[in-house]
């Protein structure tokens, strides 16, 4: 295991911009060592960055991620952190399931509107083009 990673190495590994890493640093989520203008990231910083990016992919806000990370650093510790993650994952799952139901309902409404238009066009003798999509 290496002692330090450069910002360039992390941007390449995680396919993100230096601006993204600096943003997480400005938000206090990671704290690299500074040697002059150079940022050196420890293995723990790399792991934090990996977890931050995972949280973002799961749809968590920066505030959510900060809260979860802070739980690990102080009471209730890892147990509280894990409970919070499970709770937030459940909330996110319910939110996404509702969005899926909303999308399915909207698709049915679009199908109905399209069918009504096509039926009326046929009644009026208006030529239709092939359906798109």
Structural class: mainly alpha
| Helix count from the secondary structure assignment | 5
- From N to C, what is the helix and strand string? EHHEEHHH
Estimated helix fraction: 55-70%
Main sheet, how many strands, which sense, barrel? 3 strands, antiparallel
Keywords:
3 strands; mainly alpha; three-stranded antiparallel β-sheet; single chain; elongated; Multidrug-efflux Transporter Regulator, Chain: A, Domain 2; 133 residues; 69% helix
Description:
- The chain has a three-stranded antiparallel sheet.
- It is mostly helical.
- The mean pLDDT is 90.
- The chain has a domain of 57 residues: Orthogonal Bundle (Multidrug-efflux Transporter Regulator, Chain: A, Domain 2).
- The longest helix is centred in the C-terminal third of the chain and has 48 residues.
- Helix 4 runs antiparallel to helix 5.
- It is elongated and about 75 Å long.
- A hairpin with a 2-residue loop joins strand 2 and strand 3.
């Amino acid at each position: 295991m290496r002692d330090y990673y450069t910002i360039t190495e992390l941007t390449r590994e995680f396919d993100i911009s230096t601006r993204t890493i600096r943003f997480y640093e400005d938000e206090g989520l990671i704290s690299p060592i500074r040697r002059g203008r150079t940022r050196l990231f420890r293995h723990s910083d790399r792991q934090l960055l990996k977890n931050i990016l995972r949280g973002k992919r799961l749809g968590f806000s920066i505030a959510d991620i900060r809260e979860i990370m802070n739980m690990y650093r102080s009471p209730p510790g890892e147990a509280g952190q894990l409970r919070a993650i499970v709770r937030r994952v459940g909330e996110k799952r319910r939110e996404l399931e509702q969005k899926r139901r909303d999308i399915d309902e909207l698709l049915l409404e679009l199908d109905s509107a399209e069918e009504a238009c096509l039926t009326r066009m046929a009644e009026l003798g208006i030529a239709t083009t092939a359906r798109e999509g």
